Amino acid sequence: MNLGEDEDIPRRDYPHNAIVTLKIDIRKINRDGALDHQVMGDHLLRKYGISTKAQWSINGASEAECIKNLIEKLEKLNG
Questions:
Q1: Is the pTM higher than 0.85?
Q2: Which residues touch 45 (CB under 8 Å, ≥6 apart)?
């Protein structure tokens, strides 16, 4: 007996979760417009209450809904 899944329900119809992980690089912009080679580290970012990584979770009642919700969040993030 498979306790984790009902064989009559397709996998795509189960609730799904997307995990988005971001790496954050904050750099000084030099007078010539080029980005400095040095990235601000966690120790400097702590005073702002952030770190160089971020992660969030997006859920959906199905595979398609999870992906739809993910796309909506990414579009909002993009502005």
A1: no
A2: 26, 51, 52
